[in-house]
């Protein structure tokens, strides 16, 4: 977790304070259930809530105890006993540390998910607004980095919207994957605790009881979770790469917003670097790197080994914090992206009409000219444009053989950009439900 | 794709014959739509189906043409023209190669998914049958590879079932991710083809039209697809590792089925190697290795670059074929797994009752003995078992201080395995809906 | 291994024929050593070489036997006995299958390395030739995709040369990593075979005896090997990305060679796609994906488990074949790369002299103008270029405040490109030892 | 970087204080060279060393300035000017931020390497000491987790030694890979700074000048560096897995040291979990996860983009700190590993002599019995051991058909463990140069 790539809201989820608060809530809810089942006194459960509920857990004190006990949950329970008093002996009855730890991790991941969803929504809102703003801003479409046929900036943004919208659905699925809890004991048999405790605690905390756990919640869930984060990161990279390309000196169809006061901008006014999207490219790599270790975590030995734990201590916070930061950075970039329609037009016309050569070719064949002849006709005029800098339309209009097949109007019609944008509304309706 | 790790059914999906058949169907369905829209003659569309529908495409001939044209789709269309005759000129009107290639890839992946689902169903059926068979077969649960508390073999299998059942849901989601088609032209604007063609072709082939495509279908879909395959592979590894552990010489709670005639088994009857599950461990790594490149494929330049193509030529077949093989190998292993309940019992009793020490500890504290004293009492008897090979139950019964707190009946009750299995039915009901 | 991305020379290494030939040689050399040690008759060793040395092993026959024995080495030995006769009983004495299999794999990897080294040498030769050709071809250097300061095409190529030269050294190290053999028996103790047999076989086959093996050669060697291949692939991607950028329509400083007859080139003469370097980008992902599974292969259980085997059956051939193909494809691209110095010059001058603004700024401060004032002076002239399309040099010459600090000659001198290329020779000497 | 998995010595390398100190040294050494070349006054260079050399840079102050300038190097230089006074204007002349940043990163990585080498040396020393201690401690070798032939604990440790020794050589190579510096300006042309400055600074700081750089030092070096760290981590996992297996309840051939006071040990004396080696397994995954992003960092756009930076901000510290911690944890585990030779013997004899069946088989064939008959003889006696719990030696001695081929002495000789350990010294000499 790198401070400069972190937002406090997400960082807070992973603080010791948050963790101990969740630990307390799990324990206290479990006490409620145990009290209801008659295992512990109802008064004790009430006292635990009363005293612990308003307590501020002293992280330094807990660390101090852990230095002696070498066990984090016991250290916390000891500290809790200092706060709650004798009734603390009813806490954690029949439970295993992992019951608390694993359920807590999932609660943290669920909360992280909710923050990520908000970030994704901000990205979606920005993409939608800018897509509609530039729905009809024509630019050249490129395959292989080479000019192909016209498209619009709105379509570019609409496809990123659609992709991010899929990511939203995936993230919702990821949330469901890890929104489970387990209070099932040392090997998951509920030997020492009634399954109804698990049900109560989970319900109280917005979780579903894990149908079958061992000492731990199965890690295929977490593998799926981090894999989905990796896909989202890859989509962020996708948008970032597009913007970096657009901002290239020779292309300059858009730029990241550059505040007037930003150092160094005016002596070399062309030197506005797409550092935010470059940064997003790197952050995507960081998010993605957690995918494989999360998958390697799945095959734990028997009812659990603890190899997953160190991995999750790192990728739990790091990956969610980084992705959260990246989503908001991306949203900011899109919200403020400076688009240059005039440069888009200039780029589009770079080859004086050659972009329409395919349409002319098609028109010739449809007018009955053979494929070979059509190709030859287009080619000889295209070459004049390419080699001598002529204008494609003018050359075609002046080519008698072409004119024998197509009228001036027919030829001019092939140079109409509207031809390429006629289905933009259809696509917008598909993506946004409106156009 | 390694022959020895391949099943013909999945391999067939990736054959040239299958590919060309799908190409034909896409083209022919597109002709239907184009005819319906009046772009091409209805007779032509009919002729194409009539002649192409029953044709066997000659892969060698197509390769021969491609050697000249250096373009696979053109080579196919040329061969198709050889079969269909003059009406072939109406084929592929307004379409781009990628329309055919990308839609075909998704159809292949969808079919692969269906085969994988069948494989997963076989795994699920095997796990369920064996889980019920061994629902009450007690074995020791292990955390950190060390004996913890008793569980049952049925629970082990039930949790693998639950995990694989989650994988089934994920695979269904993966199928939906890539069940889209696109016939949208060079940069996805439908400039040269009506969106209704795409709709018709997709409907005919069981796909959903891609809401917004460029020259290609967006690759976040494929990234998600392969990520899910990676999770499933990790679950396979999880089961494989469990079985490999069970088959260890010192544990021997289960073995892969070893046919009587299998070489080398009798001179060293203990030398039955879990080679199938070891192999599955390796295959899991192979499936998983496609996850990252599939994610790296997402950020294509502008409306497409072709960097994804070579990656998919490899991981498309290799990963689906390997996972398919692994699922069936796993199913076979589970179906025939030789379980040794008597060894499970022997292992469980390895420490002459020490496995019950936790329960005794709890009983003492519940009987009013302080935590410290309870611990001391359990410890001194446990040590006699550990160091002198005594029996834990007998030592406890003979310990006056223990007996002051607990009656013989109360102590004996702590050694009842039923205590650990009392909620097995509850868990089975959660997992299977029945117990 | 995808045929279209394969070269026969590398593919041949992985054929069954090559494999069986190596198996034979290991066995025959071992017989020599065993004969020398008096374990088997010298005549037998001679017969084995005489008959086996000239034999063509019948792959189909071996497969047939394996279908029965379910063991590849036994199948081969059985076939060998069919060829050699009764003396075949002296073959493989005291050896373990893995002795043959692991030593063979390393021989194949060593041979693959030698082919890769030749490929890398071709790349190096191409880079060097083109670097010297374009040593002084000035082009704009870019950071963040944005124009920075001038550099030369030769420097670009020289740095790729230096990078590939490092890769050559790494590949030599990789070769040494896996140039070991082991004939050490079931668990590596030489219980049934004298270590001198291993020494003889290794010496005969150009290998070093593995100092300590188990049943297998330790897999950290192979992990290192594939990691190095992954680095080389990443460097290939590095060059490929540079060329793809250079070929972008708006940049067009270089192009992959496009043969005159190549389809589709003339109707859209700008539509020359950098498909080879795009393909290399994808191939780099494929090579790289073997790195992690090769590392996961290191931790085998005890004296070996067989999980690594399936992984290596795939990545052994696939990764070496793909990288070999990529190296030759890259060499071809560089050898024939069409460079456009005139476009480089055009791009360099895109901002009418602004590229020199940094030097002017420095000159002003060195002439005693304060940092703030220097910046202001440069900025106000730069802005006229940026916003009004003026020429930077002319504006500076006309700016009285600038002229108060710098003479016309001093200003003009700042626009000399030679300033930027003055150390090119120094760098070339560092890289190539000559300039 | 997770505090509990961090050692202060390595953490210190990545502190802001260390970073600013290195920045200062690079700048000050550059000033020396610039002064020597007559570019700046010698007095200024002296003043900079005098004042800056003893200064404590105020991290908070630098952060404060950076909050305004949004540029870390400028913030530092501003703070340096506060310390040095007017002569500070001679600092950083002709240099680019990346000159400082990239050279600093490499210095940090070199220092990290030196610490890692010390850690590796500790591991090697521990492995060597324990290997000699247990050179002749016989244990069963296992392939596939199944008993195979005897080996010794010393051989197990010797092979880990050999593997770690290879890793040491790799780490030395990794150090050389990144022990370069670059002071070459905005695009690496030395336009604004003499190459001799680079040479001086590098020599002063123990680096080699990068032969050809762009704005940055090429990232194939860092990719190789992290790949090597990934291999070392995989070797750590290899050792960890072996120990985890040895500590399994059913095997118990060794245990991680468990201090007498460690909680929970005595009530369940068997419940000593190999948590350190499990942790190492997880840490290996964390180290390994940096390999792929480091490779993805290689292909920067043109003379640099900044995508690598965020990746390195994370993996630079995290990966070196984690690996360093892991090496020392591993060394501690090995140093204190509790080995149970008596359990090794017990496990070895688990099948009452069956482990020697292969030798008996061989002896029979060597005594002239046909392969088939030998096999049958061994098998029928082995089966009595396996199914009826008989002793293999006794059965063989009582088998008339066996005795017809082999004398009692010959049979007994096959049960001599010395047969398996006779080459241990040879192997030790290979590995350690002594035995």
Automatic annotation (TrEMBL), chains A, B, C, D:
Pfam families on file: ADSL_C (PF10397), Lyase_1 (PF00206)
Biological processes, Gene Ontology terms: 'de novo' AMP biosynthetic process; 'de novo' IMP biosynthetic process
EC number: 4.3.2.2
CDD domains cross-referenced by the UniProt entry: Adenylsuccinate_lyase_1
UniProt superkingdom: Bacteria
Keywords attached to this entry: Lyase, Purine biosynthesis
Gene3D superfamilies (alphabetical): Fumarase/aspartase (C-terminal domain), Fumarase/aspartase (Central domain), Fumarase/aspartase (N-terminal domain)
Any one of the GO CC terms: cytosol
Keyword Glycosyltransferase among UniProt keywords: no
Pathway: Purine metabolism; AMP biosynthesis via de novo pathway; AMP from IMP: step 2/2; Purine metabolism; IMP biosynthesis via de novo pathway; 5-amino-1-(5-phospho-D-ribosyl)imidazole-4-carboxamide from 5-amino-1-(5-phospho-D-ribosyl)imidazole-4-carboxylate: step 2/2
NCBIfam families (alphabetical): purB (TIGR00928)
Family, per entry: Belongs to the lyase 1 family. Adenylosuccinate lyase subfamily.
Protein name: Adenylosuccinate lyase
Originating species: Rhizobium subbaraonis
Species classification: Bacteria, Pseudomonadati, Pseudomonadota, Alphaproteobacteria, Hyphomicrobiales
